[in-house]
């Protein structure tokens, strides 16, 4: 049975994604995303699941930067999970929202609930934690009037009550999680894939007018549909960027080699980060 690692502790959305997507109990939590990625690279675990992008807050930058600059692991699958944020309190709390002095959660979760917090809890102090699960853990052992933002799993894991359901600002809130592994055969998701996708890492030549336009044109005239293009700094100086491009189709031996050859002729560097199935999971 494969050892599966995830961003923990118990009660995180990553744990929820892992429980929903994989059978078995051989699951291990990690405090940070880099720790989970390193564990896959070092052979401590077989599969790592980490968040990549949220529909409201955008890319989880530490995931992208760590996979590009520190540890190059192939993406074996993508899991898309709906995100429902609830306000969690200790059992017995009977006060009003305005009486909660402190709210704990991950920075992304707090940002996803910005309007609710602004309108109903403007005086509460916001405390950032490493995960929503960690926030629930802290509140479970803290003062009676503290609150956390997290999911139903976190409430169950740490014995908290859901004081207010669905406090996220936008209903269509989803997070993409990537499944990392060195061996594709051990990745067994218990759902049917809805699509396949290929991710590429592209760096542009310096001082080349129109380079990005020509990169996109290489996909466009081949009628290859791009679902995402994002730039991130190369960390080699101002103005130096790499691009992550997601193509909504699996890698083949005709179109993708053609794109790669065309871009390399322009002076670009092209790396295939992975071609993988996409699983859309309804909770």
Automatic annotation (TrEMBL):
Q: Where is the Prephenate dehydratase domain?
A: 3-182
Taxonomic classification, please? Answer: Bacteria, Bacillati, Bacillota, Bacilli, Bacillales
Q: What is the E.C. number?
A: 4.2.1.51
Record protein name field: Prephenate dehydratase
Originating species: Lentibacillus kapialis
Alphabetical GO CC annotations of the entry are:
cytoplasm
- The signal peptide annotation in the UniProt record is none
A family per Pfam: PDT
**Which UniProt keywords are listed?**
Amino-acid biosynthesis, Aromatic amino acid biosynthesis, Lyase, Phenylalanine biosynthesis
State which pathway it belongs to: Amino-acid biosynthesis; L-phenylalanine biosynthesis; phenylpyruvate from prephenate: step 1/1
Superkingdom assignment: Bacteria
Q: Which GO terms describe its molecular function?
A: prephenate dehydratase activity
PROSITE patterns recorded? ACT (PS51671), PREPHENATE_DEHYDR_2 (PS00858), PREPHENATE_DEHYDR_3 (PS51171)
List the GO biological process terms. L-phenylalanine biosynthetic process
UniProt-annotated site: Essential for prephenate dehydratase activity, residues = 175
Tell me where in this chain the ACT domain is found.
Answer: 200-280
Q: Which reaction does it catalyse?
A: prephenate + H(+) = 3-phenylpyruvate + CO2 + H2O
Q: Which gene encodes it?
A: pheA
């Amino acid at each position: 049975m494969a050892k599966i690692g995830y961003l923990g502790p118990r009660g995180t959305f990553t744990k929820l994604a892992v429980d929903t997507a994989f059978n078995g109990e051989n699951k291990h939590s990690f405090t940070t995303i880099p720790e989970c990625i390193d564990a896959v690279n070092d052979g401590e675990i077989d599969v790592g699941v980490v968040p990549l992008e949220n529909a409201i807050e955008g890319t989880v930058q530490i995931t992208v930067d760590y996979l590009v600059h520190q540890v190059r692991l192939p993406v074996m699958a993508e899991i898309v999970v709906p995100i429902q944020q609830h306000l969690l309190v200790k059992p017995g709390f009977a006060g009003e929202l305005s009486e909660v002095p402190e709210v704990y959660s991950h920075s992304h979760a707090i940002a996803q609930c910005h309007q609710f917090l602004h309108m109903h809890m403007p005086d509460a102090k916001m405390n950032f934690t490493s995960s929503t699960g960690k926030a629930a853990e802290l509140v479970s052992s803290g003062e009676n009037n503290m609150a956390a933002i997290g999911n139903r799993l976190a409430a169950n894991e740490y014995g908290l009550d859901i004081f207010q359901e669905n406090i996220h600002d936008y209903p269509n809130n989803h997070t993409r999680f990537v499944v990392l592994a060195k061996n594709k055969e051990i990745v067994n998701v218990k759902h049917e894939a809805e699509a396949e996708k290929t991710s590429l890492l592209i760096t542009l030549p310096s001082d080349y007018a129109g380079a990005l336009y020509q990169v996109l044109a290489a996909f466009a005239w081949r009628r290859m549909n791009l679902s995402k293009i994002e730039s991130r700094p190369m960390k080699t100086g101002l103005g130096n960027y790499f691009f992550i491009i997601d193509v909504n189709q699996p890698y083949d031996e005709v179109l993708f080699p053609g794109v790669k050859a065309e871009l390399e002729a322009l002076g670009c560097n092209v790396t295939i980060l992975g071609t993988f199935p996409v699983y859309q999971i309804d909770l």
